[in-house]
Amino acid sequence: MAPDALSLTDVHTFYGDSHILHGVSFSLPPGGVLALLGRNGAGKTTCISTIIGFLKPREGQIRLFGEPIDGLNPERISHLGIGLVPQGRRIFPSLTVRENLVVAQQRRTQNANPWNVDRIFDMFPRLRERHGQFAGTLSGGEQQMLAIGRALMGNPRVLLLDEPSEGLAPLIVAEVGRTIRRLKDQGQSIVLVEQNRQLALDVADLAIILNTGRCVFSGEAHELVNNEELITQNLGVYRAP
Questions:
Q1: What angle is formed at CA 73 by the lines to CA 105 and CA 90, rounded to 5 degrees?
Q2: What distance lies between CA 59 and its chain's CA centroid?
Q3: Which residues pair with 134 in a beta bridge?
Q4: Model pTM score
Q5: What's the pLDDT tens digit per position in 94-103?
Q6: Whole-angstrom Cα distance, residue 232 to residue 195?
Q7: Residue 182 to residues 81, 88, 214, Cα–Cα distance (Å)
Q8: SS3 at position 37
Q9: Phi-psi map region of 78: left, alpha, beta (phi>0 left; psi -120 to 50 alpha)
Q10: pLDDT, mean over the chain
Q11: 189-193 and 158-162 as β-strands: parallel, antiparallel, unpaired?
Q12: Other C-beta atoms within 10 Å of 208: how many?
């Protein structure tokens, strides 16, 4: 039986003396999309930071396709195949669109169809049109496309998306959703942190809800769609614009 693309087992993470993640466990099958949901402060970004190595878990294990990665530094974790689109995008504003992509390219990959600049431009034609433009002058939606493209240039085996729809207009949010579906159709394994639960549950196969650093729901995404009691209790009453 093939190993999960990503698995967390009883992960505990601290900020100093503050215990943030309390025994978080979940698994993502290859080619799946897992939505990581929760209110602000629930521990979602801490979970992403722990997976990518910005924070080290004090207990528990994280595996990438069966290989332990907990405790490794972020560079090593990235090299092994975890890609991150961070909250707030964090593109390099003084570099051009093309330079932002080229600087992130990793040559060694197990991907039979590796990502390169032309393939990114095929997915995001607007980036091709603006290839020589400084990234800091792009619109918010274009910067989000660039942030996703930059992460893909590392040919990740698992892609972490942290709040990709944040601050974007509804039409651009819909475009982000289409991009996630296209990546899913191409077999990309994805962990999606998203406040827009409608978007998240529409594209995800699996869903996790964190509440004060603990998993309070783990299951099929469709199980959450009509569970208003659980949603209201743990996610509030957010409605997509």
A1: 50
A2: 23
A3: 96
A4: 0.89
A5: 999 999 999 8
A6: 13
A7: 19, 22, 31
A8: strand
A9: alpha
A10: 90
A11: parallel
A12: 25
